[in-house]
Amino acid sequence: MKNIMFGDKKKKLTDSERSLISETVSIEGTINSSGAIDVAGLIKGPVFSKEIIIRETGSITGSIEGDHVEIHGHLDGKVSGQDVVIGSTGTVKGDIEFGNIEYLDYSKIGSGKSGLGLLKSELSDDFEFTEGSIGFARSTEFDSEDSEFFITLKEIPIYQGEYTPIGKVKYGLDILKKIKTGNKAIYVLRPDYINTFRMLETN
Which of 61, 91, 107, 133 is deepest in the core (most CB within 10 A)? Predict the structure, then answer.
């Protein structure tokens, strides 16, 4: 099975377009750049750049904004970006805003309909819906799956053989538990949504 990735590949910036704030450098003030900034030192103030990478030794106190943002060090402030990655060593104290919400079609939220037609149920008696299982949602009838899916946050044995399984959450289940929730009677204001999606083969 091939790895499947949803989302555009980013054009990598050349070394000549990158600026490095080394570990021995401390800057106070606003930084603007049309290229990329690698931060290994200390910055106090807002940073605006096409690409921002905070290395493990790097620290920024202030808001940051860029098309692509990677945080492997420390950020105390708001981060805004089209693509935001927080590494295992990264810490963020502030709000995170990512993706392009200007063209988000709120009329489709919660409808579960893609407009591309229904899918046939592909049931499995061997797949167990334990914590972190992913499956296609459907109506009361089989063969009514569409774009809506669910992720179980606890074991639900009665789903076995009743819903089409997709896979399992490999890591990050604790993050999923922080997603805004609602029910049929309550509309979720500014709901969380998927900006990019990657499906990996697992053994």
Answer: 133
